[in-house]
C-alpha cells in the first residue's frame, strides 16, 4: 500500500516535471483560453459585441467602438472656389459640338453663305436660341470681314470674345447666403420635379459647409416622401440639420419650422427645398407664394434659386418661364450640363429669364455642383 502510494507520487511528479507532452491538458490548459477571447474582439469591429466577449475586455478598447456607433462621420467638403476649373473637362460634349464645330467652320478659307448657315445651325443646335444666334452670326460676319485671313489663334480669340460677350460676365452671380445679424439667409429652391432640385439643395448644403457655413435644410417637398429622406441623407453627411414635416403636409409650415430652427441654431443659411408641382400656374403661385410669405414672418428670402435641367432644351425653358412669372427668381442652377452638347442654354436661359446662372451641375458626384464662372465655361468650350 505504502509502496504503491510512493510509486504514484513519484510518477505524478515525473509527469508534472516533463517539459512537454501529450495528454496533459489540465496542466497547460487553464492559462490559455482567455488569451484569444481578449485579443479577438479588440481587433474586430463593432459587431463583435455579442457573446459576452466585450464584457471581459478592459474598458479602453470598448469606448471607441461605442463612439463609432453613435457618431457618424461628418464630411467637410473642400471650399467651392475653383470647383468649375476642376470640373471643366465635364463640358467635353459642349466643347466637341459647339467649340470644335465653330472653330472648324470659322477657320475655312472661304466663308460663303453655306458656311454661315452651318455656323447658325451649330449655334441653334447647342440651344443658344434663335435671336441670339442671329445676333452672333451678324457680329461674327463683321469681325471676320475686318480680319480678312485668319490664323487659328485669331479665330479662337474671336470666338472666345463673342461667346464671352453673350454669357455676360458682368452679371452679379453672388449667391446671397450671408446671415443678417441674428437671422440666417434663406435660399428657396424651386423648379420642376426631376430637374435635380433635391440633389441641388443637398449639393448646395455641401458647397456652403465647405465654405465654412452652418446650414439648416428644410424639406418642404412634402409631396414626394422620398425627397425628404433624400434631403436628410445629404444633410446628415455634412452635419446639417434637416427639418421635415409629415408626408403630404403643408410645405409652408415646414419652411417656417426650418427658418425657426435656423434662427435657434444660429445657422448662416437655411435652404428650403420646395415641391413646386407645375399642375396649374395658379396652384403653383399659391403654393410658392404661401411658402414665401410664411418665411417672411421670421426672415427674408434672400435667394430664389430656379433649378433647370440643361438636357431638357426648349421644353425645360418654357417650364422655367412659368416659375419666373410666379416667383421672383434671383438665380439659376443649371443641372446636368455635363451630360449635354447643348451648353448654349447658359446663354439663352439668361437672356430669356433675365436672371444669371449662378450654379452649374457638372456630374452626379456630391461635389459636382460649382459656382458658375463665365470665363472657365467659355475656355472649356473653345479649348486652350
Ligand atoms: N450628370 C448629372 N446628373 C445630375 C446632375 N444633377 C442631378 N443629377 C442627377 O439626376 C438624377 C435625378 O435627379 P432628380 O430626379 O431630379 O431628383 P431630385 O434631385 O430629387 O429632383 P426632385 O424630384 O425635383 O426632388 C440623380 O441621379 C442626380 O444625381 C448633374 O449636374 N449632372
TrEMBL record:
Compositionally biased spans, kind Pro residues: 27-36
Membrane topology field: Peripheral membrane protein
Keyword Transcription: no
The reaction(s) this protein catalyses: GTP + H2O = GDP + phosphate + H(+)
GO terms, biological process: SRP-dependent cotranslational protein targeting to membrane
Binding-site list for GTP: 191-198, 273-277, 335-338
Segments of this protein annotated with the region Disordered: 21-63
Range of residues in the leader sequence: none
Key words of the record: Cell membrane, Cytoplasm, GTP-binding, Hydrolase, Membrane, Nucleotide-binding, Receptor
GO molecular function ontology, one term from the record: GTPase activity
Location in or out of the cell: Cell membrane; Cytoplasm
GO CC field: cytoplasm; plasma membrane
Classification via InterPro entries: AAA+_ATPase (IPR003593), P-loop_NTPase (IPR027417), Signal_recog_particl_SRP54_hlx (IPR013822), SR_rcpt_FtsY (IPR004390), SRP/SRP_N (IPR036225), SRP54_GTPase_dom (IPR000897), SRP54_N_sf (IPR042101)
Cytoplasm as UniProt keyword: yes
Domain (SRP54-type proteins GTP-binding) ranges: 356-369
Main location: membrane
SMART domains: AAA, SRP54, SRP54_N
EC nos: 3.6.5.4
Entries under HAMAP family matching the protein: FtsY
Subunit-level organization: Part of the signal recognition particle protein translocation system, which is composed of SRP and FtsY.
Family: Belongs to the GTP-binding SRP family. FtsY subfamily.
Protein role: Involved in targeting and insertion of nascent membrane proteins into the cytoplasmic membrane. Acts as a receptor for the complex formed by the signal recognition particle (SRP) and the ribosome-nascent chain (RNC).
Name the record gives this protein: Signal recognition particle receptor FtsY
Protein source organism: Sphaerimonospora thailandensis
Gene: ftsY
Amino acid at each position: 500500500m505504502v509502496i504503491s502510494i510512493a510509486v504514484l507520487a513519484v510518477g505524478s511528479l515525473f509527469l508534472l516535471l516533463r517539459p512537454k507532452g501529450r495528454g496533459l491538458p489540465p496542466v497547460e490548459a487553464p492559462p490559455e483560453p482567455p488569451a484569444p477571447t481578449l485579443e479577438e474582439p479588440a481587433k474586430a469591429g463593432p459587431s463583435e459585441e455579442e457573446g459576452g466577449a466585450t464584457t471581459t475586455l478592459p474598458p479602453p478598447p470598448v469606448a471607441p467602438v461605442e463612439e463609432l456607433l453613435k457618431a457618424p462621420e461628418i464630411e467637410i467638403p473642400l471650399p467651392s472656389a475653383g470647383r468649375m476649373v476642376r470640373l471643366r473637362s465635364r463640358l467635353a460634349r459642349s466643347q466637341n459640338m459647339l467649340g470644335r464645330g465653330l472653330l472648324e467652320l470659322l477657320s475655312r478659307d472661304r466663308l460663303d453663305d453655306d458656311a454661315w448657315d452651318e455656323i447658325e445651325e451649330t449655334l441653334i443646335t447647342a440651344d443658344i436660341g434663335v435671336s441670339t444666334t442671329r445676333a452672333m452670326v451678324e457680329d461674327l460676319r463683321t469681325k471676320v470681314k475686318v480680319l480678312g485671313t485668319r490664323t487659328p489663334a485669331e479665330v479662337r480669340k474671336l470666338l472666345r470674345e463673342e461667346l464671352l460677350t453673350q454669357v455676360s460676365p458682368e452679371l452679379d452671380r453672388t449667391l446671397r447666403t450671408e446671415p443678417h445679424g441674428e437671422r440666417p439667409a434663406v435660399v428657396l429652391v424651386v423648379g420642376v420635379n426631376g430637374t435635380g432640385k433635391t440633389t441641388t439643395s443637398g449639393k448646395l448644403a455641401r458647397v456652403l459647409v465647405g465654405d465654412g457655413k452652418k446650414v439648416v435644410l428644410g424639406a418642404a417637398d412634402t409631396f414626394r416622401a422620398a425627397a425628404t429622406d433624400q434631403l436628410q441623407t445629404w444633410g446628415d453627411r455634412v452635419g446639417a440639420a434637416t427639418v421635415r414635416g409629415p408626408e403630404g403636409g403643408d410645405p409652408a409650415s415646414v419652411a417656417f419650422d426650418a427658418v425657426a430652427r435656423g434662427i435657434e441654431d444660429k445657422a448662416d443659411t437655411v435652404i428650403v427645398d420646395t415641391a413646386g408641382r407645375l399642375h396649374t400656374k395658379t396652384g403653383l403661385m399659391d403654393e410658392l407664394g404661401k411658402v414665401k410669405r410664411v418665411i417672411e414672418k421670421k426672415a427674408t428670402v434672400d435667394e430664389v434659386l430656379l433649378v433647370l435641367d440643361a438636357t431638357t432644351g426648349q421644353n425645360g425653358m418654357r417650364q422655367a418661364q412659368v416659375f419666373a412669372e410666379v416667383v421672383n427668381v434671383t438665380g439659376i442652377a443649371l443641372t446636368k450640363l455635363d451630360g449635354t452638347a447643348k451648353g448654349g442654354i447658359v446663354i439663352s436661359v439668361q437672356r430669356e429669364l433675365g436672371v444669371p446662372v449662378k450654379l452649374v451641375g457638372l456630374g452626379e458626384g456630391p461635389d459636382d455642383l460649382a459656382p458658375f464662372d463665365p470665363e472657365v465655361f467659355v475656355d472649356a468650350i473653345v479649348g486652350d
